[in-house]
Automatic annotation (TrEMBL):
Protein name: Glycosyltransferase
Record keywords: Glycosyltransferase, Transferase
Domain of life according to the entry: Eukaryota
Biological source species: Triticum urartu (Red wild einkorn)
Pfam families: UDPGT
Amino acid sequence: MEKEKTVVLYPGLFVSHFVPMMQLARALLDHGYAVSVALIDPAVKEDIAFGAVVRRVAASMPSVRFHTLRAVKDTPKLTHDARFMVRYLDLLSRYNERLHDFLFSMLARNVHTVVVDSVSNEALRVVKRLGIPGYTMFTSSAATFAAFAQLPTILAEGGPSFKELGDTPLELFGLPPIPASHLLGEVLEDLDSDTYKATMALLCRIPEADGTLVNTFESLEARAVAALRDPLCVPGRVLPPVYCVGAFVGSIADAGVKERHECLAWLDGQPDRSVVFLCFGSIGTGNHSEEQLREIAVGLDKSGHRFLWVVRAPASDHPGADPDLNALLPDGFMEQTNGRGLVVKLWAPQVEVLRHKATGAFVTHCGWNSVLEGVTAGVPMLCWPLYSEQKMNKLHMVGDMGIAKEMVGWQQGLVKAGEVETKVRLVMESEEGSELRSRAAACKDAAAVACNDGGSSRLAFARFLADVANRKDRACSEEVGDA
């Protein structure tokens, strides 16, 4: 009897990275592969949302084997602060031997490949030591991946640090100019800081993978994809093959949530494409100050448009705390907007909301998963980046994709009520808003084509599986030859 073909996935400790990798697991199952997931114990991260998502997904995917790696002693809890990346990468290195032991125990199960989260790419050295093909999964855009691949070569040529460049545009191969200030905060640190050094070391390891799966589809980012395939992208280095296998979107993280959310019933009663949806990412990361919440409320009220707004307590409060809407929002706001607006605490089923016929626009923090959810729903967007690579995503959404407008006040630290009102009116009422809507609808259609039989993403996934099989066959032949 032929042994089952197994793929091992090694996701990171982020909801936004874990969920697309579990959608990859579903795709692998559909192609007849067995899937095992190696996990660092979610308890090491002070993020109740991540642990809850892992439990729900594991319960909803009984065909996938989930294995929590044996704990490393004296592991400090991870908190989101200025040194998070340094501690996170140190944690991953501590678990390398645990991962090695797990993979070694799995060899009898005919492991074809290991796919690691791109932030965990140091683990590829463990994978290669065992003679297993090793790939990474990049859960943001192809454009961001192209930028990350090029950053280490820029400073190698000398010149000022990214921090010193400020808003000076970086000219990167195959990409529009990117202000240095829009890069990851970790590379805007001083050159001698631990955070900067650890992040750049991470980016320098990009070419070590046998290939990279990117959660995008080719027609959405044609220029960036072409750049990644050009030898001039990173002079002197060969980038591994890139497989654009997305868009991986869906409500897999909401598995086990059986009751229909109240906001969906409210949307059922609204006219088509009449509601502005505001949501800013996972619990604990998309928080605004009390002043900012009030500005949003006044702007929404004055716009006169219907809205569905997910509100979280300010970041200074306990993450995930139940917000006191009466204390946070202007006096009388809830009464004045009753029927026209709905404020939801903490969370809403974003994919279902975006795909609802009543939703007409999306105010987003530009996290890549949210961008793809907006794209596949065909909804025009208003960009309000907060952290990570979201400023870079904003550039591409407003520029090459042409599906969004920017809330520029984020650059001064406060989006005023007047801008909220003006931009909501723009996307919902103006000719420019209609053009955004048309391009968003075209992107939705393109995403469907890419994911259908014969589409670019389906073909890319088949190419990935064929490359894995070829590497596995070569490895087996070499073992026979050595014997």
